[in-house]
Design brief:
This protein is mainly beta and 74 residues long. The chain is built from no helices and twelve strands.
Length: 74
């Protein structure tokens, strides 16, 4: 199941699967892969990043092209 909050921007070719929760006012760049991730309010995930089974906290930034491994808390 995928839950998406209010006022989110999800760019083209974002791949979202396996229990993803996206808070309010979140930006997900193009070509991002989200798998089992939690993105809290105002999180930013840059172009081409991969977030797998990790949490991106409020107002945190994941750089473009970054690979965030399992069980990581940003």
């Amino acid at each position: 199941m995928v839950n998406v909050g209010k006022n989110c921007v999800i760019q083209d070719r974002a791949h979202i699967s396996r229990e993803v929760t996206i808070g309010d006012n979140v930006y997900v760049g193009p070509n991002v892969t989200l798998q089992g991730a939690t993105l809290k309010n105002k999180a930013f995930v840059g172009m081409g990043a991969t977030v797998r089974h990790a949490t991106v906290n409020s107002e945190a930034v994941v750089a473009a092209g970054a690979v965030i491994p399992d069980n990581t808390n940003i």
